[in-house]
Amino acid sequence: MRFFVTVIILTLYLFSYSSYQVEPYYQIEDEEITTQQSSEFVIVEDNSTDNELEFVEFQSQTPVIEYIDLKTAQKEAIDEHKFLLIKIESNNCPSCIRLNTLLDTNENIKSMVNTYTKAVKYNREDDKIPAKLDYFGTPTLFIFDSSGKQVLMKLQGNEAIDELEESLNTVIYDQS
User: Fold this and answer.
1) Residue 65 located in a structural domain
2) Do 109 and 148 reside in the same domain of the chain?
3) pLDDT in tens, 64-83
4) Tens digit of each residue's pLDDT (9 = 90 or more) over 152-174
Protein backbone atom coordinates (compact mmCIF):
# COMPACT_ATOMS: atom_id res chain seq x y z
CA MET A 1 0.00 0.00 0.00
CA ARG A 2 2.82 2.39 0.88
CA PHE A 3 4.38 1.76 -2.53
CA PHE A 4 1.15 2.65 -4.35
CA VAL A 5 0.71 5.86 -2.37
CA THR A 6 4.28 6.87 -3.20
CA VAL A 7 3.72 6.12 -6.90
CA ILE A 8 0.49 8.12 -6.93
CA ILE A 9 2.10 11.11 -5.20
CA LEU A 10 5.08 10.99 -7.53
CA THR A 11 2.77 10.73 -10.57
CA LEU A 12 0.70 13.72 -9.43
CA TYR A 13 3.86 15.71 -8.78
CA LEU A 14 5.26 14.97 -12.23
CA PHE A 15 1.90 15.56 -13.92
CA SER A 16 1.59 19.01 -12.33
CA TYR A 17 4.86 20.06 -13.98
CA SER A 18 4.27 18.36 -17.30
CA SER A 19 1.55 20.82 -18.29
CA TYR A 20 4.09 23.64 -18.47
CA GLN A 21 6.12 24.14 -21.61
CA VAL A 22 9.78 24.36 -20.78
CA GLU A 23 12.04 25.83 -23.38
CA PRO A 24 15.66 24.76 -23.53
CA TYR A 25 17.90 27.15 -21.68
CA TYR A 26 21.15 25.66 -22.84
CA GLN A 27 22.60 23.91 -25.81
CA ILE A 28 25.45 21.50 -26.14
CA GLU A 29 28.14 22.31 -28.66
CA ASP A 30 31.23 20.13 -28.91
CA GLU A 31 30.44 18.64 -25.50
CA GLU A 32 30.48 22.04 -23.83
CA ILE A 33 27.49 23.72 -22.29
CA THR A 34 27.03 27.29 -23.39
CA THR A 35 25.18 29.89 -21.37
CA GLN A 36 21.77 30.88 -22.69
CA GLN A 37 19.46 33.56 -21.33
CA SER A 38 15.70 33.70 -21.23
CA SER A 39 13.44 36.33 -19.75
CA GLU A 40 13.29 34.38 -16.48
CA PHE A 41 16.43 32.36 -15.90
CA VAL A 42 19.99 31.98 -17.01
CA ILE A 43 21.83 28.71 -16.68
CA VAL A 44 25.51 28.83 -16.01
CA GLU A 45 28.02 26.03 -15.92
CA ASP A 46 28.97 24.94 -12.43
CA ASN A 47 32.71 24.37 -12.20
CA SER A 48 32.44 22.00 -9.26
CA THR A 49 33.26 18.32 -9.64
CA ASP A 50 29.62 17.17 -9.66
CA ASN A 51 29.00 18.95 -13.02
CA GLU A 52 25.58 20.26 -12.05
CA LEU A 53 24.02 23.32 -13.57
CA GLU A 54 23.12 26.24 -11.38
CA PHE A 55 19.85 28.09 -12.01
CA VAL A 56 20.13 31.81 -11.38
CA GLU A 57 17.21 34.17 -11.74
CA PHE A 58 17.76 36.56 -14.64
CA GLN A 59 16.36 40.05 -14.45
CA SER A 60 16.16 42.10 -17.60
CA GLN A 61 18.41 45.14 -17.43
CA THR A 62 16.03 47.23 -19.53
CA PRO A 63 12.47 47.95 -18.40
CA VAL A 64 9.59 47.00 -20.66
CA ILE A 65 8.46 49.48 -23.28
CA GLU A 66 5.88 51.85 -21.87
CA TYR A 67 3.11 52.76 -24.31
CA ILE A 68 1.18 55.97 -23.76
CA ASP A 69 -1.65 57.77 -25.58
CA LEU A 70 -0.89 59.78 -28.71
CA LYS A 71 -1.49 63.28 -27.29
CA THR A 72 0.75 62.63 -24.29
CA ALA A 73 3.39 61.02 -26.49
CA GLN A 74 3.43 63.98 -28.89
CA LYS A 75 3.75 66.50 -26.06
CA GLU A 76 6.49 64.52 -24.30
CA ALA A 77 8.35 63.87 -27.57
CA ILE A 78 8.51 67.59 -28.28
CA ASP A 79 9.43 68.51 -24.69
CA GLU A 80 12.11 65.81 -24.41
CA HIS A 81 13.37 66.00 -28.04
CA LYS A 82 12.50 62.36 -28.71
CA PHE A 83 11.09 60.50 -31.68
CA LEU A 84 7.49 59.30 -31.79
CA LEU A 85 7.09 55.54 -32.33
CA ILE A 86 3.66 54.26 -33.32
CA LYS A 87 2.93 50.53 -33.49
CA ILE A 88 -0.22 49.17 -35.12
CA GLU A 89 -1.10 45.56 -34.40
CA SER A 90 -4.10 43.26 -34.54
CA ASN A 91 -5.47 40.33 -32.58
CA ASN A 92 -4.45 36.82 -33.65
CA CYS A 93 -1.73 38.13 -35.94
CA PRO A 94 1.30 35.78 -35.91
CA SER A 95 3.67 38.51 -37.11
CA CYS A 96 2.36 40.86 -34.40
CA ILE A 97 3.06 38.21 -31.77
CA ARG A 98 6.60 37.76 -33.13
CA LEU A 99 7.15 41.52 -33.12
CA ASN A 100 5.89 41.86 -29.54
CA THR A 101 8.19 39.03 -28.46
CA LEU A 102 11.12 40.79 -30.12
CA LEU A 103 10.21 44.10 -28.48
CA ASP A 104 9.91 42.40 -25.08
CA THR A 105 13.13 40.38 -25.23
CA ASN A 106 15.71 42.27 -27.29
CA GLU A 107 17.61 44.45 -24.83
CA ASN A 108 19.12 46.69 -27.56
CA ILE A 109 15.74 47.44 -29.10
CA LYS A 110 14.08 48.07 -25.72
CA SER A 111 16.91 50.38 -24.73
CA MET A 112 16.70 52.39 -27.97
CA VAL A 113 12.90 52.66 -27.79
CA ASN A 114 12.89 53.66 -24.11
CA THR A 115 15.77 56.13 -24.49
CA TYR A 116 14.99 57.83 -27.79
CA THR A 117 11.24 57.50 -28.39
CA LYS A 118 7.82 57.94 -26.91
CA ALA A 119 5.80 54.88 -27.88
CA VAL A 120 2.14 54.58 -28.82
CA LYS A 121 0.33 51.33 -29.56
CA TYR A 122 -2.89 50.82 -31.50
CA ASN A 123 -4.83 47.60 -31.94
CA ARG A 124 -6.70 47.53 -35.24
CA GLU A 125 -9.73 45.77 -33.73
CA ASP A 126 -9.95 47.76 -30.49
CA ASP A 127 -8.72 51.29 -31.19
CA LYS A 128 -9.60 54.11 -33.55
CA ILE A 129 -6.44 54.65 -35.57
CA PRO A 130 -5.73 58.19 -36.82
CA ALA A 131 -6.52 58.53 -40.53
CA LYS A 132 -3.15 60.14 -41.30
CA LEU A 133 -1.41 56.83 -40.54
CA ASP A 134 -1.18 55.23 -43.95
CA TYR A 135 -0.84 51.52 -43.30
CA PHE A 136 -1.88 48.39 -45.16
CA GLY A 137 -1.43 45.48 -42.77
CA THR A 138 -0.17 44.56 -39.37
CA PRO A 139 2.17 44.87 -37.72
CA THR A 140 3.20 48.33 -38.86
CA LEU A 141 5.74 50.52 -37.11
CA PHE A 142 6.22 54.22 -37.73
CA ILE A 143 8.87 56.53 -36.35
CA PHE A 144 8.06 60.21 -36.67
CA ASP A 145 10.13 63.24 -35.82
CA SER A 146 9.24 64.77 -32.45
CA SER A 147 6.55 66.98 -33.99
CA GLY A 148 4.80 63.91 -35.37
CA LYS A 149 4.66 65.39 -38.87
CA GLN A 150 7.51 63.73 -40.76
CA VAL A 151 7.69 59.94 -41.13
CA LEU A 152 11.31 58.87 -40.67
CA MET A 153 10.70 55.11 -40.78
CA LYS A 154 7.85 52.81 -41.75
CA LEU A 155 8.11 49.03 -41.45
CA GLN A 156 5.29 46.60 -42.22
CA GLY A 157 4.74 42.88 -41.72
CA ASN A 158 7.77 40.64 -41.40
CA GLU A 159 9.96 43.57 -42.44
CA ALA A 160 9.04 45.17 -39.11
CA ILE A 161 10.55 42.16 -37.36
CA ASP A 162 13.53 41.39 -39.59
CA GLU A 163 14.81 44.94 -40.02
CA LEU A 164 13.70 46.63 -36.81
CA GLU A 165 16.98 46.86 -34.91
CA GLU A 166 18.98 48.01 -37.95
CA SER A 167 16.30 50.54 -38.94
CA LEU A 168 16.08 51.94 -35.41
CA ASN A 169 19.86 52.35 -35.32
CA THR A 170 19.82 54.15 -38.65
CA VAL A 171 16.99 56.53 -37.77
CA ILE A 172 18.03 57.26 -34.21
CA TYR A 173 21.74 57.74 -34.72
CA ASP A 174 21.53 59.48 -38.11
CA GLN A 175 18.81 61.90 -37.00
CA SER A 176 20.09 62.63 -33.46
Assistant:
1) no
2) yes
3) 999 999 999 999 999 999 99
4) 999 999 988 999 999 999 998 88
